[in-house]
Write a structure and sequence with these properties.
Largest sheet: 2 strands, parallel
Number of strands: 2
Order of helices and strands: HEHHEHHHHHHHHHH
Radius of gyration: 22 Å
Strand content: under 5%
Number of helices: 13
Length: 402
C-alpha cells in the first residue's frame, strides 16, 4: 500500500522530512497535545459533544504527522524507526473510541494512597494501551506478577531485563541476516523460502528463520516495555503495580486462543476489537468478531511494514492473521462438538504447528519488505556477532548440500 494518494489530499510535504526539534514541535506535538485534551474530556462528564467536534481535527493532525515525518534521520538502515509513526494511528482510533463513549470512562484501580485526579487519570488513559484498571478493558488477561515490587528492585529488574532481551534480540537478528546476507538480509528484502532447496529442507530452513524472528520480536517488545518502566517508576514515581507483565510465557500456549488472547501482549487488544471485531460481530456474530479483530491486526501490521516498503501486498498479512482467526474458531467448534477445551501436550503441539505454519507467511512478508535488512546498535554491537555469523552461514551451507 502506498501513501502517495493521501499526501496529495492532505497539506503535507511531497517527501517526508527528518525529525528534529523544529519538525517535532510542528508535526508531533499538536496531535500529542490534542490526544491528551481528548483524554481529559473522556474522563470528564458532559463532554460528549465537544469530543465529537474535536475528533476530526485530532485525526487530521495525526495523519499529517504520520505522512510528513521520517524518523530514520536519513539513514536507510534505521528506516524501521518509522514504524513508531503508527502511534498516530493509535491516536486516531483511540480518540474515536473515546468520542463514541456516551459516559465518562472510569478508572477503578489507582496507586495506593493516591486521590482521584482528572489530570492523572487522563495521563494514565493516554498511556495505558491495555486499559489495565479501567472499565473499558473487560476480559483483559493480566499475567501473574513474579517480579519484586519494591521500587528499587523493580527498576533494577527492568534494567537487567532490558539488557538481557536487547542482547538476545541482537543475536537473533544477526542470525536471521546471516541466513541470507544478499537477499532478505538487505534493505531490498527477499523471500525466506529458497526455491533451490528440496521441499522439506526449504520449509525446515524457513521455519528456523521464522522461529528466530518470533523470539526476536518478543525480545524487542519486552525490551521496549522495560525501558518505559525505568523512567515511569524511577522518575515519575509510578507504582510498580501499574506495570503488570507484558507477556505470559507465550511459548507455553496450549491453544491458539491461549496464545493470542492471554499469553502474547495485549497492548492493541481493545483497538482491534473496536476497529474490526465489534463492527463485524454486528453482522456475523461471535465468529465475525473474531475474524474482524484479526483482520484489523493484519491491516495494522501491514501499515507498519508499509512505512518501510510501500510495495508490500496487503493480502499476505490478511491471510496470515485470518488463519489465526480460523484456528481460534476451529478450537471453539471443537469445544462445542466434544465438550473439551483444546489444551495439554496435544494442544501445545497443535498450537505451535499452526503458529509456525502461518507464521512462515507472516515472517516472509516482513522479509520481502526489507525489515530484516535494517540494523541498529542492538545487533551491530552484540559481542557474539562474528561467532553467530560464521555458525549460521556454515549451517546454511550445510543445508544447501541436500
Amino acid at each position: 500500500m502506498s501513501f502517495a494518494a493521501l499526501r496529495d489530499v492532505l497539506p503535507v510535504p511531497s517527501t517526508p522530512i527528518s525529525i528534529d526539534p523544529t519538525s517535532f514541535v510542528s508535526y508531533v506535538l499538536p496531535p500529542l497535545l490534542s490526544y491528551f485534551v481528548v483524554a481529559i474530556l473522556a474522563v470528564t462528564p458532559q463532554t460528549h459533544s465537544l469530543r465529537v467536534a474535536l475528533w476530526p481535527l485530532v485525526t487530521l493532525l495525526a495523519l499529517r504527522a504520520a505522512l510528513s515525518l521520517d524518523l530514520s534521520l536519513g539513514k536507510p538502515e534505521l528506516s524501521f524507526l518509522n514504524i513508531d509513526l503508527l502511534l498516530m494511528f493509535s491516536i486516531a482510533t483511540r480518540t474515536l473510541e473515546w468520542t463514541l463513549a456516551k459516559e465518562p470512562l472510569k478508572r477503578h484501580i489507582r496507586p495506593a494512597n493516591s486521590t482521584p485526579s482528572v489530570v492523572m487519570d487522563a495521563l494514565d488513559l493516554a498511556a495505558n494501551l491495555r486499559g489495565y484498571g479501567w472499565d473499558w478493558s473487560k476480559g483483559l488477561h493480566v499475567p501473574r506478577e513474579t517480579r519484586p515490587l519494591t521500587r528499587t528492585r523493580f527498576v533494577a529488574h527492568a534494567v537487567f531485563s532490558a539488557g538481557l532481551h536487547a542482547f538476545i534480540c541482537g543475536t537473533l537478528h544477526r542470525a536471521v541476516q546471516s541466513f541470507s546476507p544478499d537477499a532478505f538480509g538487505t534493505l531490498q528484502g527477499g523471500s525466506i523460502f529458497d526455491d533451490t532447496l528440496p521441499l522439506f529442507i526449504r520449509y525446515l530452513r524457513s521455519t528456523i528463520i521464522s522461529t528466530f524472528c518470533a523470539f526476536a520480536i518478543y525480545c524487542v517488545l519486552q525490551m521496549g516495555y522495560d525501558l518505559c518502566i525505568i523512567p515511569a517508576v524511577l522518575i515519575l514515581r509510578q507504582d510498580p503495580l501499574q506495570w503488570p507483565p507484558a507477556f505470559d510465557a507465550p511459548w507455553f500456549s496450549t491453544s491458539v486462543s491461549d496464545f493470542w488472547g492471554r499469553r502474547w501482549h495485549q497492548w492493541f487488544r481493545q483497538t482491534f476489537i473496536f476497529v474490526g471485531g465489534y463492527p463485524l460481530s454486528l453482522v456475523f456474530g461471535r465468529v465475525g468478531g473474531i475474524f474482524g479483530g484479526f483482520f484489523a491486526s493484519g491491516v495494522f501490521h501491514h501499515m507498519a511494514l508499509a512505512t518501510l516498503n510501500g510495495q508490500v501486498e496487503l493480502w499476505r498479512m490478511l491471510v496470515s492473521f485470518g488463519m489465526m482467526a480460523l484456528g481460534v474458531v476451529g478450537e471453539r467448534l471443537f469445544l462445542q462438538l466434544s465438550g473439551r477445551k483444546v489444551g495439554g501436550v496435544v494442544g501445545w503441539v497443535w498450537t505451535m504447528t499452526w503458529l509456525i505454519l502461518w507464521g512462515n507467511l507472516m515472517i516472509d512478508t516482513w522479509a520481502r519488505g526489507g525489515m530484516f535488512g535494517c540494523s541498529s546498535i542492538i545487533d551491530s554491537a552484540t559481542p557474539v556477532r562474528v561467532l553467530v555469523e560464521r555458525s549460521v552461514m556454515a549451517f546454511d551451507v550445510w543445508l544447501h548440500t541436500f
